[in-house]
Amino acid sequence: MRGSSTRRLCVWALACFCFGFFANRLNAQTLWVDCSGNTPGAYSSIMQAVFNAPSGATLIVSGGTCNEWVYLGNVSNISIGAWWGGRVTIPYLEIAGSRSVYLYGLDVKNGNAWTGIHIGQSQDVMLDTCTSTYSGGLGVNIDSASSVFMFGGQYSNNPGGGINLIQSSYLYLNSTSIDNNAVYGIWADQSEVWTDGGLEIANTTGGPYNGMGVSLASGSRGNFYTWAGNNNITGNQTAGFSVDQGARLVLMGGSVQAGYANNINGNGATGIALRAGSHATLGGGTHIANHSDVAIDVWGQSQVMMFADNVIQSNTGQAAIRIDGNSEGLIWNAAITGNSGPGVLAVNNSSAEVAGDALNGNTGGPFVCDATSHVITDLSPDMLGSSNSCKPSTGSGHHVHLVPPTSSGPRPNPVKAAEDRFRKLATKPK
């Protein structure tokens, strides 16, 4: 019930935002651009049209290549894109100090510039079905408290990283592919990432300390929901998620058997690595499999909270879940099966609550902990085994203290209204 109310509130906010954003643009000017120079009356470059575009203008660009660096500085309420269903290739895009910018069908591709797309000090920038590939370094750099919305598109084959998100910035993703980058797929520092599904982050390279699908650092927030489709974090060289320095990760799906899921599969050593006071919440519908060390590694006063329908299987390292270094775990109603080592391992003054879980077929048994650690569990003494050194907690002493996840929630986005406007306007001039 609460989730339905929240979603209705988001839809209402989106409608209000769209109305305010587009109400003053119904009679806005449309400018035509043909970089080949073959269309009489059209501008011959995007920047020439930008210099002459009033607030609220729509620039429709003939498909093909425009060999120019596109710079949008201190502009507002502007839309730029190919004819609907078409593509336009440019070598570089920068947006600075701008607001309410909608871009459609732009392919940013170059081998020289350090960054394909750079967005700074800008709000409500929408990249609809855009790409940034084969840059000299980063695919996309977002900084200085910017807010960016990506719908569709591909950000791949960038040697410096896929998307870099820093300095209190916000990134929303829907049905986006971030693959075959080096160093990381997404890096967030003091920033927030939100997706509601359809996200793919795959095949990131650059170990041993790089090669993560998603890196959250310095208090960043990562919110990975699956309302619109599966999120697949697969084949990254070192880890699926690295969550460090007080960062927080939330994974919320339907279920692995029904509905959409967060699939974290085959990411080198670790599915999710928590470090230095970080926190992860797995609220159901997360499937973690095929890692060479552990599925979830919790270390350095970090915390993991798992409930509902999560599946952890076929991980071949020390344990399925390792809780280490004064860390804590709350693990409810998960299927933790077919892993090497124990299902759950707690060591070095750590603690765990394990209840309602299916802990079958793990080669090291269901649960193991050392003499410094504590457990609250519904497992019988026979299941724990006589050699287990766990200290059961009985109402005092070291217990699990977990902080519930927090999030500012998704920001409203006006992309649907912008798409409708482009469908209406993006036809060849008569």
Describe this structure in words.
The chain is mainly beta and 430 residues long. It has a single domain (88-410), classed as 3 Solenoid (Pectate Lyase C-like), CATH 2.160.20. Helix content is 10%, strand content 42%. It has 4 helices and 41 strands. The strands form 4 sheets. It has a 16-stranded parallel beta sheet. A 13-stranded parallel beta sheet has the order 4-7-10-13-16-19-22-25-28-31-34-37-39. Strands 18-21-24-27-30-33-36 form a 7-stranded parallel beta sheet, with no helix packed on it. The radius of gyration is 24 Å and the shape is elongated. The relative contact order is 0.09. The model is unreliable at 1-27 and 394-414 (pLDDT under 50).
Percent in helix = under 10%
Strand order of the largest sheet: 1-2-5-8-11-14-17-20-23-26-29-32-35-38-40-41
**Domain module tally:** 1
What is the helix tally?
A: 4
Instruction: Please tell me how large the radius of gyration is.
Output: 24 Å
CATH topology descriptor:
Pectate Lyase C-like
Q: Strand content of the residues, in percent?
A: 35-45%
Report on the biggest sheet.
Answer: 16 strands, parallel
Mean pLDDT, rounded to whole units? 86
Regions with little confidence, pLDDT below 50 for 5+ residues: 1-27, 394-414
CATH architecture: 3 Solenoid
End-to-end CA span: 52 Å
- Number of DSSP-assigned strands: 41
The CATH class label is Mainly Beta
Tell the overall outline.
elongated
Output the structural class. Answer: mainly beta
